[in-house]
Amino acid sequence: MASVKSNGIEMVVVSALREEGGFVTISGTVTNNTSGRWIGAEWIGDERELEGDGGSLAGASLMDGDGKKRYMILRDTEGRCLCTKFQGGVARGSTVEWFAQFPAPPTGTDKVQLQVPTMPPATIQISEG
User: Which class in CATH covers the domain with range 2-123?
Assistant: First the structure.
């Protein structure tokens, strides 16, 4: 669906599914092509509420260019992101799966940009669940 690279990290988006309940689940893989362990610290969100998420996709967002609206990562009742947390990091040369959930853009909006800190934006197609 989409693949972006930055600083030795490759993020691949495999699916973006609009789910019942008004949210979108995006999933894929991340590969560490750096010279050491990658912990995802640069992907943490700037918001104080997300500080406890550690290395995760907490800083990710979806951008609806047509609707001119940004959708931030969903959180559980304790403020933790509904996303993958890279516990212990990703070893050099390894690939791991990830997911992230966001509020769904309006029906009919099927193309958005996934924005992850330090990575170029990835244009993705949302499919209906």
Answer: mainly beta
